[in-house]
Amino acid sequence: MYNLLRSFLFLFDPERVHYFSMNALKFLCKSRFIKKLVAKKFTPAPFAGLSHTIFNLQFTNPVGLGAGFDKNALYLTELAALGFGFVEIGTVTPLPQVGNDKPRLFRLPKDKALFNRMGFNNDGVKIIAERLRQWLVENRTMAIPACKLIIGGNIGKNKITPNEDAWKDYEICFTALHDHVDYFVVNVSSPNTPGLRELQEKDSLSKILQNLQQLNNKKATPKPILLKIAPDLTISQIDAVIELAMEIKLDGLVAANTTISLSALITDEALLKNIGTGGLSGQPLKQRSTEIVNYIHQKTNGQLPVIASGGIFTGADAKEKLNAGASLVQVWTGFIYEGPAIVSNICKSLL
Question: pTM score, two decimals?
Answer without folding.
Answer: 0.96
